[in-house]
Input
Amino acid sequence: MSNKKQVRPYGDTLHDGKVQVSFSLPVPCDAKGEAAAKAIAHAMHLVDVVVAEQRPLGKGYSFYIVYGTLTQTIDLEALEVIDHGETAMNKTDIETYIRDTFVEPLVFIGASTGTDAHTVGIDAIMNMKGIAGHYGLERYAGIKAINLGSQVDNEVLLDKALEVGADVILISQTVTQKDMHIRNLTAFVELLEAEGLRDRFLVIIGGPRISHALAKELGFDAGFGPGKFAFDVASFAVKALRERGVKTHKMTTDK
Amino acid sequence: MSNKKQVRPYGDTLHDGKVQVSFSLPVPCDAKGEAAAKAIAHAMHLVDVVVAEQRPLGKGYSFYIVYGTLTQTIDLEALEVIDHGETAMNKTDIETYIRDTFVEPLVFIGASTGTDAHTVGIDAIMNMKGIAGHYGLERYAGIKAINLGSQVDNEVLLDKALEVGADVILISQTVTQKDMHIRNLTAFVELLEAEGLRDRFLVIIGGPRISHALAKELGFDAGFGPGKFAFDVASFAVKALRERGVKTHKMTTDK
Amino acid sequence: MYLNLDSRQINRCRAAARKIAEDVHHHLEQYSTVAVERTVLRLLGIDGVNRFDVPYPNVVIDHLKASGVLEKGAAFAMAHAMNTTRLTPQAIAEAVDAGTLDLSTCMTQSAPDMTRLLEAFARVRAAIDKQSAYRRHHRINPHDKPLPDKYVIVATGDIYEDIEQALSAVDNGADIVAVIRTTGQSLLDYVPHGATREGFGGTTATRENFRLMRAALDEAGTRHGRYIQLVNYASGLCMPEIAALGALERLDMMLNDSLYGIIFRDINMQRTLIDQYFSRVLSAYADIIINTGEDNYLTTADAYEHAHTVIASQFINEHFALKAGMPSRLMGLGHAFEIDPAHPDSFLLEVAQAQLSRQLFPDAPLKYMPPTKHMKGDIFMGTVQNALFNMVTVMTHQDIHLLGMMTEAIHTPFMSDRALALDNAAYVARAMASFGDAFEIKPGGLVEQRAQTVLNEATALLEVIEQEGLLATLEKGRFAGIGRGRTQGKGLEGVFQKDALYANPVLDTMCTALKEDRPDEQ
Amino acid sequence: MYLNLDSRQINRCRAAARKIAEDVHHHLEQYSTVAVERTVLRLLGIDGVNRFDVPYPNVVIDHLKASGVLEKGAAFAMAHAMNTTRLTPQAIAEAVDAGTLDLSTCMTQSAPDMTRLLEAFARVRAAIDKQSAYRRHHRINPHDKPLPDKYVIVATGDIYEDIEQALSAVDNGADIVAVIRTTGQSLLDYVPHGATREGFGGTTATRENFRLMRAALDEAGTRHGRYIQLVNYASGLCMPEIAALGALERLDMMLNDSLYGIIFRDINMQRTLIDQYFSRVLSAYADIIINTGEDNYLTTADAYEHAHTVIASQFINEHFALKAGMPSRLMGLGHAFEIDPAHPDSFLLEVAQAQLSRQLFPDAPLKYMPPTKHMKGDIFMGTVQNALFNMVTVMTHQDIHLLGMMTEAIHTPFMSDRALALDNAAYVARAMASFGDAFEIKPGGLVEQRAQTVLNEATALLEVIEQEGLLATLEKGRFAGIGRGRTQGKGLEGVFQKDALYANPVLDTMCTALKEDRPDEQ
Ligand code: B12
Ligand code: B12
Ligand SMILES: Cc1ncc(COP(=O)(O)O)c(C=O)c1O
Ligand SMILES: Cc1ncc(COP(=O)(O)O)c(C=O)c1O
Output
C-alpha cells in the first residue's frame, strides 16, 4: 500500500521512468555538445540517455532532444495540494446563495493592471458574455461587476474600488516575463497594507500563470488560472464574503 | 576563464537554465496530478516550474508538458568525449591509402544480426549505392564487401567471416527495445572470445542507437551511429588494420 | 476531387494482374504446407500445448511428417483417425502426443469418409460464424465511414501493458488497435501459447493475448459507443494459423501479405504464397479485412522512384484476394506517405499517389501508412510531417488511417505519443473534412501529371511481370530492391507436394460457402 | 488558384474606404501633436538626451508648450531661432535645455524664412536617402519573391541577447527580424535613449538599439547572401518619432496602425490618427513597408464572426496610406489565422479569408499572422496549428510570413522555438510550393462561398462606417469589440489646434518629393 504512493514517469511500462527533455546549450553542435547534453540529462537524474536529436542553432548554440529514464520517484501521498477547497457551485446555485445570504448586491471591481494590456482573461470572468459557454459575473443576479479594462495603475484601481464600495477586487496579469506580474502584484499588496486596507477587500488574482498557491504566497485571498471561469471565482468569493460576514443579515442586524 | 566552462541550458538569456520536459504519470489528471508533475520537475532539479499543459490520457494516466529552470551546471572542460580520433578521409584518399599500405584487398563482411530485419543501415554502409550521396564500401577500390543481409545468426556470421577470410566484421543493430541489441552484441563478443578469435577480426558495430563509446564498452573496436557513412567506417578500419599490421607490406616480408 | 484516368489502361492493369495471380495459383496448387495442415487441425478444434509447450497442431503434423504420411494431408489422417478411434480431434492429438496413438496405423490407402471430420469443423465454424455475426452487427466497415478510421499500434511486449495503452488510445479517439508482434515471431514455425509479458518491439501473437485484448476493447468500445477493431499479423511461417485464431477470437483485420514476408523476412516464396491462399479464404469467410504491405517497399526503396511498384503490387494483391473469394470491401490494400521531405513539392506528389490508389480501388478500405523512413529524432519536425500526412489522408479519403508517431525514429510508441498523434489527426480531419467541396484537382496540373506517370510505370511493370511470372520478378528484386531465390528463404522445408489422395474439405467447405452465401460478391 | 469575385463590389468597398479616410483627414487637418513636432525636430537633426535623460526634442517641445507658442509649430519656432541665433538645431536645443535660450524671444508674429531650416532638414534627408538607396539596392520586396519571407520576432528585453537570437534565426532561414518592444513603451511620450538591457516582453525601441541590430543583421545578411529586413513599431505615443529613427537607421518595416493603438493601447484616437498621417508620409518617403494590425482584432473578437472587420479595416488602412502618398508595394496589410481549431473546416475557412485578402490587395506585401489566441500549452498541437497556418500562407501566396511559435501560450520565443518554427515553415513551403499548379478553388464551393460572405459583410460594414464616420465607429467598438471615446484615452493632451501661422515645411517637402519623384506611384 505505502509502495503504491511512489510514482515515476510512465512511457510504456509501469515505473519505467521515461521522460522527454529538450533544451539549447550555448556551445557548438559537435561531439562535445552532445556530451554536454548527456551531462545535463545526467544532472537531471536521467540514465539510459538517448540524444534523439542535436542540431546547430547558428554559431555557438545548439539544440538537443533527449529521452531518458528518471531514477527519482516522488511520493504522491506526501504532496500538498493547494486548491480552492470544495467544488464550485454553478451560476444558479450561486445566485440562490447570494439571495439567501446577503442583504445587498455584492460589488466586484476588476482590471488588468500595470502596463498589461491583456483583457481577454478578465473580460472572460467579468463581462456578460463570459467564455466557453460560461457567463461572466456581470450576468449574475446579486452581483454588480465593474470592469476597468487594461493598463490600470494599482493606485487608480484602489481609488475606484473605494469609490464604488467594492467588496471584491479582481486583478488580471498576463505578461510574466522577468516576473513582471510578481512585481506588480506585490506592489498592490504593499499599497493595500500601507493604506491599512488589506482587510477591507477580498482580493483575487488571475491569469495564465497564476495559481491559488502563488496567490496565497503573495498575500492574496485566491488565485485562478486557465480553465477557471466566473462560477469558480464567484463560488469562492461568496463563501469567503459570508465567512467574513460582509453584507450578511447577521452583520447588518448586529450593527 | 575557468568560469567559462560552466554551462547551463539556454532559453533567451545566457545561463537562464531553461528546459522543456514532458512525461506521463500513472495518476489521474487533476490537481494532485499537477502537483505530482511539479514534484517530478523539482526532482529533476528544476525550479520556477510552469506546467504548460496537463491532459488526461484515459483512465488513471495523465500527460504533462513542463518548462522550468535547471539549477545545475555542468563543466564543459571536464567532459570526456569518446570519438573515433582524427577526422575521416574521403573515398579517394582511402583508396590511395589502401593502395599504398596493403598488399591484398581488404575483406569486409557485414550483417544485420539476430532477429533484426533492418538492412537499410548496413546497406547504406556496404552496398554500391550507399546513402545520401556517399557510396558504400562495395564501390571502394581495394575493398571486398560482403553483405549477408538481415536476420543472420551470430554463429552464421562468424562461420562466414572465417570462410571468406574477412579482415573486418560489420554488425548492424536497429531494434533496441528492452536492450535487445545489447544482448545480441554481447553474445557475439562472447562467441568470439569462446572461440579464441577476438583478435582475428576488427569488429565494428553500427545502428541508430550505437555510439563509439557504447561499442568500446561492449568490447568492440568501434561503433558508428546516425550520420556516419562508409568513408567514416573505412577511414577508421584502414588505419586500425594498418596499426595491427594486417596485410601490410611489413607483415608479409616479416613472415 | 478526382483525377482524369483512362479506364482502358486500368483494365489493362487488371488483366495483367489476373494473369499473374492465376499463374502463381496454378503453379502452387499441387503443394501444401505444414502451416496449412496445422490450421486444418485448429479448425477441427485442436488447441493447447503439451508439457514441453509444443502446440498440439505441431505435435500432430510433426508426427504425420515423421510417419511419412503428411502428403495426404491432415484431413485425410484425421478423418481416418476419427472414424477409427471415435475420439475428438483434441483427444486424438493428445493421444499422439502421449505416444499412445500412431495415426498411420489408422489409415487405409483410400479416401476416408469425411462426415465426422466435417462435424468437428462445423462446431469450430459455428464459433467463427458467431464472431462474424457479432462483428457484422457492430462494426461499420471503415470504407463506409465519412472520415478515416484512426489506427494505432501498441507494442510494449507485455499484453497487460498493451491493454492499458490500448484503452488510453481508445479514450483518446482510436478506432483500430493493432498489437505489433515481437520481432522474431514470424520466423517461428509454431504459434506460442498463453498470455505473454516479454516481447521485443512487440508482443507475441497468441490466442490468449488475442482474447484478452478483444475483451478489453469490447468493453472500451461499449463505453464509448463505437466498435473498436483489433488487428494482428497473419504473416510469417504461421500465417494461416494466426488467421484461424483471429477468426476465432474476433480480430477484425489481419496484416496478410506474402510479399512482405518474402522480401523483408526472407520467408520462402512458395511456402508463404501457399499459406496466403488458405489465409485469405479463411479471412474472407470470417469477414476479416486484410491489410497488404506495399507501404514497406517504400521504406527500403525510394518512395518517388518506386511509387509505381506499390500500384503494381496492389493490383496483384487484389487478384490474389479475388482468387481466394474475397470481396473488395475486405481488401485493405496498403500504401504510404514516404517521399523524402527534402523533395520539392513532396506534399503534392503524395496527394497524387494517394489519390491514384483511391481511384484505382474505389471499393477497397485502403490502408494508408504514415511517414516512417524520413522521420528523425526531431519530434517537432516529425509532428509536422505527420500533420501533412494526416491532411493527405483526409483529402484523398483514405479509409484506414495508420497514425504517425512523432517518436517513430526513437522507440515504439509511448502512451502519450499515441494521444498526441490522435489529437493531430483529429484536428486535421476536423479542419479540412470538406476539402473536396472546396478544391478540385487542376486538369493536366502537377498532381494529375504525376498520377498518370505512376500509373504508366505501373502498367509497364505489370506487363513485364505478366511475361516473366511473379516468382522471377521476386528473384530479380523488382519490389523494394530486394531479391529472393525461389528455393531459398525460411520455411521451404515445410512445403510438400500433395499426394493424389490429398484432401482439404475444410478449405473446400469455406470456398463453397463463399460462393454460395455471397454470390453477389464473387 | 483564384476566387471569382465581382470587381464592382470591390470598387464599391474602395469608394467607401476613400470617403472614410478623407473625412478623418479633413477633420484632423487642423490639428497637430507634440509627437509630430518632436519628429520635425528630429528631422532637423536634434538628437540625444539631457542629463536627466530627457530627449532634446522633448525639451524643446515642452519649452514651446510652456511658452504657449507650440500652436505655430516647431518649424516656425526653429526657423525663427535659427535665423536669429545662427545656431544649429542641436545647439539651439541644448541652449534651451541649459536655460540660456528662450525660443519665444526669437519669434516674430510673421512666418519665418525657412531656408536655413530646410538646409538642416536637407542634411538629415540626405542621410535617409542614403539608407533608402542602400536598401533599394539590396532588398527584394517580399511581394516580388516566389515564396513568403519568413518573419520572426526577438523579445528578450536585452538588445545584446536579441542580437544573438536574431543571428541564430538568420542562420536558420529567417528573412525578417522584428524586435518586439517592451510592454510599457507605447505609452511613453518620449523615445528612450541608448542601448538597453532591461525590457519586459520586449526590448526598448531606441535609436542605438536600432543601430546595433541593423549592423548585426547587415553582417549576417552579407554572410548568407540575402538582405535581412529589420522591423520595429511606429506606434504608440511616439509613432512618428520612431518612424523617423527607423528611416535614419534603415529599418525596413514598421508596424504602423493607429487603430491598434486606439483599440488595444487606449491611445486617444485623434492623437494617433494625426501622428499616423505624418508617420506614413515619412515611411513612404523612406521606402519603408508598414505593417497594419488587423490581425489583432481576431485575438479579442471571434475570428469567424469578425472576419469581415479585418477586410473593412484593410480597405480603410489602404486609403489612409494612399492619402499619405504611399504606394501599394509598401502596404503590408495585416490579417491572421485565428479561427478556433474546434471549428469544422477551419482550415478551409482560413484559406478563404487569406485568399480573399490576397485578391483584394494584389499588389500589397500582405502580412499574415499565425495562430496565437488558440495556442495552448500543448506545444505539439501548437506545432500542428502552425503547420496548417504555414500551408495557408504558401497556398495563398502571402508575402510576409510571421512564423507561429509552438510556445506562443508560454513565453516570448526561445532561440530553439524560432529554429523549429523556421524548419516547419521551410518544410511546408518546399512541400507545396506549386500548390496553385495542382489545385483549383471549386467554383461555388465552400471556399468561394465563404470568401463571398466575408466580402459582403465587409461591404456592408464599410457602408455603415461611411455613414457614421470612423470616429463614431471606434466609439461603438465595431473593431475587436472594444469601444473607445473620441476624447478619452492617452495622449489627448498632446493634440493642439494649429495656429494660422502654423507651418510644417518638413512634411510639405516630403509630400512634394513623393509626388514629384514617383508620379507613377501616386
Ligand atoms: C490576445 C493576446 C494579445 C492581445 C490582447 C488583446 C486583448 N484585448 O486582451 C494583443 C495583440 C493586444 C497582445 C499584445 C501583447 N502581448 Co499578448 N497575447 C495574447 C495571446 C495570444 C492570448 C491571450 C488570451 O487572450 N488568452 C485567453 C484568455 C481567456 O486566457 P487567460 O488570460 O489565461 O484567462 C483565463 C485565466 O487565466 C483566468 N483569468 C485571467 N485573468 C483573470 C483575472 C481574475 C481575477 C481571475 C479570477 C481569473 C483570470 O480566467 C480566464 C478564463 O479561464 C497570448 C498567447 C496565448 N495564446 O496565450 C499572448 C501573450 C500573453 N502576449 C504576450 C506579449 C509579450 C504581448 C506584448 C507585450 C508583446 C509586445 N511587446 O508587443 C503585447 C503588449 C500587451 C501588453 N502590454 O500587455 C506574451 C506574454 C509572455 C509572457 N509570458 O510574459 C504571450 C504569452 C505571447 C508570447 N508567447 O509572447 N496580446
Ligand atoms: C525501414 C524500417 C523498417 C523496415 C525495414 C526494411 C529494411 N529492409 O531494412 C520494415 C518495415 C521491414 C521494418 C520492420 C520492423 N521494424 Co522497423 N523501422 C524502419 C524505420 C522506419 C527506418 C529504419 C531505417 O531504415 N533507417 C535509415 C538508416 C539509413 O538509418 P540507420 O539504420 O540508423 O543507419 C545509419 C547508421 O545508424 C549507421 N549504421 C547502421 N547500421 C550500421 C552498421 C555498421 C557496421 C555501421 C558502421 C554503421 C551502421 O549508418 C547508417 C547511415 O548513416 C525505423 C524508424 C526510423 N525512422 O528510424 C523503424 C524502426 C527501426 N522499426 C522498429 C520496429 C520495432 C520494427 C519491427 C520489429 C516492428 C514489428 N514488431 O513488426 C519490424 C520487424 C523488423 C525486425 N524484426 O527487425 C522500431 C525499433 C524500436 C526500437 N528502438 O527498438 C523503429 C525505431 C520504429 C518504431 N518507432 O517503432 N522496419
Ligand atoms: C504486411 C505486413 N505483414 C507483416 C508485418 C510485420 O510482421 P511480422 O514480421 O511480425 O510478420 C508487417 C509490418 O509492418 C507488414 O506490413
Ligand atoms: C499594428 C501593431 N502595432 C503595435 C503593436 C504593439 O506594439 P506597442 O504596443 O509596443 O506599440 C502591435 C503588436 O502586435 C501591432 O500589431
